[in-house]
Write a structure and sequence with these properties.
Blueprint (H helix, E strand, L loop, with lengths): L6 H26 L3 H15 L7 H15 L3 H13 L4 H14 L2 H21 L1
Length: 130
């Protein structure tokens, strides 16, 4: 059975495009030749199952994800994708900057500084695209 035909996959693909836009599509495309199953799982579980839940809105979800990835400190490419996603769903640059300041308390200054650097890169990249 072709898993791209399942409702779970379709729901996940639509949610990924809604939140992450082209950055999310690029992540999936980058996996297709090396690990198509990981691409499929990324669509089905995080987006088809978790992001599709309706208790939290997309804006709140992305605030939580940006904070968590900043705190992790080892997921810069994914952090940048989710900073973009946060901006896509209505989180402001100022709010993202404030999240980084908050993370200085809970994750330490190195994580907050690295997160702020990623935020700056995303903002600059988006301005170039305008």
């Amino acid at each position: 059975m072709d898993s791209t035909k399942t409702e779970r996959f379709k729901r996940g693909w639509e949610k990924l495009k809604e939140i992450d836009g082209q950055a999310g599509v690029n992540v999936i495309e980058s996996l297709k030749d090396i690990s198509p199953d990981l691409a499929k799982y990324t669509i089905e579980y995080p987006f088809g199952d978790v992001y599709s839940r309706e208790i939290l809105d997309n804006r709140t979800k992305e605030i939580a994800v940006v904070a968590a990835m900043t705190a992790m400190g080892n997921a810069r490419p994914q952090l940048k994708v989710h900073i973009n996603a946060a901006l896509n769903v209505g989180v402001s640059e100022e709010e993202l900057s404030e999240i980084m300041i908050l993370m200085s308390v809970y994750a330490g200054f190195p994580s907050a500084l690295n997160g702020t650097s990623a935020l700056k890169e995303v903002i600059m990249e988006r301005k170039k695209e305008e």
